Amino acid sequence: MKSFVLRLEKGDEAISKIVGFCAQNDIENAWFSGFGAASSARLAIYDLEKKEYIRKEFSGILEILNFLGNVGQMDGKTIVHSHVTLSNKDFSAFGGHVDELIIAATCEIILHQLDITLARKRDDEIGLNLLDI
Hints:
The chain is 8% helix and 67% strand. The chain is mainly beta. Strands 1, 2, 3, 4 and 5 form a 5-stranded antiparallel β-sheet that branches. The longest helix is centred in the first third of the chain and has 11 residues, at 14-24.
C-alpha cells in the first residue's frame, strides 16, 4: 500500500481535487481521511423508501472534523464516495454524504492507494451504486 498526503487550499472543491490527484497518479482504488476548514458544503442523506437523496447546503465558518471516503471505479469512471462531519461557530456538529465541499483555509488528507479493487455496480433494490464484493 502506498500513501500520499494532499493539502487542499482555500477555494478548492475537495471531491474534484481528489479525483484529479488520483488521475494524475494513476490511482484507481484508495481510502482517505482528512480534516480542516470549509466555507461551504452540499451534503446529502439517502431516503431508502423514496430511493433519493435529501440535500442541504451549509455555509459560513465550518470546521471539517472528519472527512472519510474511498475511491473506486464504475463503468471506467473514478467514483469518490465520502462522508463528512462538520461543526459550525456554535460548535454544533452535523454531517452526511458529500456532494460538494469547498475548502476555507486548508484540508489535510491522507490517501492510501489500495491493492484491491473497489468496483461499484447499481443495486436496483436499494437504488444506489454499491461496492461489488
